[in-house]
# Entry
Amino acid sequence: MNVYLDNNATTRVARKSLDAMLECMEDYGNPSSMHVLGQNAKKRLMDARMQVASFLAASPQEVVFTGSGTEGNHMAILGSCALNPGKRHIVTSRVEHPATLALFGHLEKQGHRVTMLDVDEEGRLDPDDLEKAVTNETALVSLMWANNETGVVFPIGDAVKIAKSKGCLFHTDAVQCAGKLKIDLSRIPVDFLVFSGHKMHAPKGVGALFVRKGIRLPPLFFGSQERGRRGGTENLPGIAALGMACRLFMEDDCCERIGLLRAKLEAGILESIPFARINGGGTERVPNTSSIRFGEMESEAILDRLDKAGIYASSGAACAAGGNQPSHVLVAMGLGKAAEASIRFSLSRYTTEEEIAQLLGILPGIVEQMTGRMQ
Ligand code: PLP
# Structure
């Protein structure tokens, strides 16, 4: 039996999401067409928008469908800069997703000033640092809600309050939070929030951007769709699947069960490999993610052996994994050499007790074989 523990890279599409996609492919109209086929498609688009809106506790007009999490983040960040041409300062953190950091690097070259907030050894962000960093020149505060490598949750409620009190826009990359924590935007007044289908049992190539009512976000792609905010014929099969994934989470979020399985995984590893440590284990994390460091061992060598045993995990972000760079997230947490010795196990609603038992049956032996350090 293969064991898939790399759900922060991507997830299996839920059966009901797949069914929703197939229906849209068979009933293949374009939502902009006036005839019956088009109107059927329009109805499906509206239904999916309602599902996403209620998943976020937002209104349907505040939901813009996108082609990915990356696209939504780019729309929110570039749009915020365009809305505030006179303010050229952005505050973010050192541990954002690599694609977002690359955009900030690009903006710096264009003359923006970007302040990167540090995190502590648990991956925590201190709201006081944010308070000090924001000035009258700040156009945008952009912080991820949950970290993709460690699962550490940032204090988004406090951060939004600070940004609002200083009159700047607030964007959150919730790609690793959606489907793992309940999001209630009626209580947390972010201006922009982004999430992605393939991290929560919908397919790749679809995401959603929340834009708070009253903000006229300029488009990256021009056209009439999405009320002029994102041109291009809608990916209706993907959108319907995303709506269904949101509905499945609302019906049964599985968070408690996933958290219990992660607790078993971590207890089992710590017990059998006494020098193992959990990155960010001392603070709030999303329930599915466990980043574990193994002394000074090379994670790639452990992963290779796990892979051969049919167990799939990762050393960090899927797009950075495979490169030889130590994770920028773990380096920012001051982990030094241990940044290269960390493995991320990420669970989902489909992870089973048996899969965790299979991992725990194999991993200690691999580590023992590689080090001879077991007791
Ligand atoms: N933000 C975070 C925190 C992520 O983990 C990812 C994907 O790994 C993204 C953004 C990018 O999302 P997408 O793959 O949909 O472009």
Q: What stands out?
A: The chain is about 40% helix and 15% strand. The mean pLDDT is 95. The longest helix spans residues 36-56. Residues 15-251 form a domain with the Aspartate Aminotransferase; domain 2 fold (CATH 3.40.640.10).
